[in-house]
Design goal:
With about 500 residues, the chain is an alpha+beta fold. The chain has helices at about 5, 30-50, 70-80, 95-105, 135-145, 165-180, 205-210, 240-255, 280-290, 310-320, 330-340, 370-385, 415-430, 480-490, and strands at about 10, 15-20, 60-65, 85-90, 110-115, 120-130, 130-135, 160, 195-200, 260, 270-275, 280, 300-305, 320-325, 350, 355-360, 365, 400-410, 435, 445-450, 455-460, 470-475, 500. Strands 1, 2, 3, 4, 5, 6, 7 and 8 form an eight-stranded mixed β-sheet that branches.
């Protein structure tokens, strides 16, 4: 069992911590010694996983743009080398590309040094095998090795090779666009397109230069392509309102046909169409579903729990698919899609409203660049037919109002408290006239209301990792969110353990 010190580093299926000074009250806990122990723990875990000796392993290492990345890369690659492994040092890279090194380069495992969209002072370790990202239990095993001060035996023969895999990864995206658009000018299928990119000073700047420009697109007006681990312009996060305002502004200022935006390590993406409509959250799911269900008639799309009622209707009535609403957490939706496919269910897409999208055709890898590539392919195909990307989701009904409130849980055993509140609310909802409990909900409590009682729905759930209960409300009528919240507040006022 992990002690409190090592338990703090487990963030779902990643390891995360504070890697550099600069934020008051957040001392560094990812020290050199701790990082080296974690690296050794990964070697021990991976050797056991793939049934090889540590000295037989081949491991790729990449990093995003945050300021502690080069130092952590030097520490981890040296520990891998000391165990006798062959190490491919890939430098600045996207998280999805590190998984792809296990496919294209035959690596037994890969490490991406990233903390996603978190502030500059934080960093982390994200691991892959050919089977995909690790599970939470795998992270616990690695941390247990570190906690127990377990190390692989020192071995000669290890090596560190500088490797430019990102160029090969980008070429793969270029080839896919060429093949699927199949333009008259085959090598320049994006000729005549003006596409702007906002990389948020993360690792995604390559997409403008090594993908879009190579294929003939005009990328002038793109923003924040240069890596800068202090993230001086905005949080690199497609869910962030400031970040999305930035790419929307870039599209408008440049009269662009399309805008794309990535998070720091490019495992998430978002877009903006030529009319300035954000292709984000529910609309992003709708676009991705429309693309993924082509050739997969009646297929199932797995999403997280907070998707809208309008999206469900769009997937099932307009696209002819099935909508499987599941739990928050990108690994949760991916694992559920894998489970459904293994059971014989045709499920081509797992996607979370945060921008994590994983397609079966791409190893169920959540890859923001691949998602945006598929959107660009569809935009080019639609243009050939005299249509626009916005036509794809013209029938999507989006809520008039939406709101999210995050309630802090005040009890020490926050998980038990949250589970008790969910049980009590479920029982309460069953007794309320006009409250309709969702029959397809798999996380928290989701209740729908008719026009007289708010014309929408709420979902109250327990956060995956934190002592928080997020509340999402949507309504199709002006003032409907307030109407729904007032009804729910009658129950909340009787609960204990929430800071209201």
């Amino acid at each position: 069992m992990l002690n409190d010190f090592y338990k703090q580093f487990k963030s779902g299926t990643d390891i995360r911590g504070v890697a550099t000074e600069g934020v008051a009250g957040q001392p560094v806990n990812l020290t050199d010694e701790v990082i080296e122990k974690m690296a050794d723990g990964f070697v021990l875990w991976l050797a056991e996983k793939v049934n090889k000796q540590p000295c037989e392993l081949k491991i790729a290492v990449g990093r995003d743009s945050r300021i502690s990345g080069p130092h952590i890369m030097a520490l981890t690659t040296k520990r891998f080398e000391a165990a006798g492994a062959a190490v491919l040092c890939c430098g600045l890279a996207s998280t999805p590309s590190m998984f792809m090194t296990t496919v294209d380069l035959g690596c037994d495992g890969a490490l991406q040094i990233t903390a996603s969209h978190h502030p500059f002072n934080r960093n982390g370790l994200k691991f892959f095998t050919r089977g995909g990202g690790l599970e939470g239990s795998d992270i616990e095993a690695i941390l247990t090795f570190a906690q127990n001060d377990s190390h692989p035996a020192a071995a000669d023969g290890g090596s560190i090779t500088e490797t430019d895999y990102m160029s090969a990864y980008a070429k793969g995206l270029c080839d896919k666009i060429k093949q699927e658009v199949n333009a008259a000018d085959y090598d320049h299928p994006l000729q005549g397109f003006h596409i702007v990119v906002d990389a948020g000073n993360g690792a995604g700047g390559f997409y403008a230069d090594k993908v879009l420009a190579v294929l003939g697109a005009d990328t002038s007006g793109s923003r924040y392509l240069e890596p800068d681990g202090m993230f001086p312009n905005h949080v690199p996060n497609p869910e962030d309102a400031t970040a999305m305002a930035s790419i929307c502004e870039a599209v408008r200022e440049n009269n662009a046909d399309l805008g794309v935006i990535f998070d720091t390590d490019v495992d998430r993406g978002g877009a903006v169409d030529s009319k300035g409509n954000e292709i984000n959250r529910n609309r992003l799911v709708a676009v991705a579903a429309a693309i993924a269900l082509e050739g997969n008639d009646g297929g199932t799309v797995v999403t997280d729990s907070i998707t809208s009622s309008g999206l469900k209707r769009f997937i099932e009535e307009n696209l002819g698919g099935k909508h499987y609403r599941y739990r928050r957490g990108y690994k949760n939706v991916i694992d559920k899609a894998l489970e459904l496919n293994a059971a014989g269910v045709n499920c081509p897409l797992a996607i979370e409203t945060s921008g994590h999208a994983a397609m079966r055709e791409n190893y169920f890898l959540d890859d923001g660049a691949y998602l945006c590539t598929k959107i660009i392919i569809k935009a080019a195909q639609l243009r050939q037919a005299g249509k626009d990307l916005s036509d794809l989701t013209a029938d999507l009904q989006e809520p008039l109002e939406s709101r999210e409130i995050r309630f802090q849980i005040t009890e020490k055993d926050f998980r038990s408290c949250g589970e008790r509140i969910i049980r009590d609310l479920t029982a309460y909802a069953e007794q309320q006239p006009g409250w309709q409990l969702a029959d397809d909900n798999r996380e928290g409590v989701r209740v729908s209301f008719d026009k007289e009682n708010g014309d929408g729905w709420f979902l109250l759930r327990l956060s995956v990792h934190d002592p928080i209960m997020p509340l999402n409300i949507e309504s199709d009528s002006e003032g409907g969110c307030d109407v729904i919240y007032r009804q729910l507040r009658t129950f909340l006022d009787t609960t204990e353990g929430l800071a209201l």
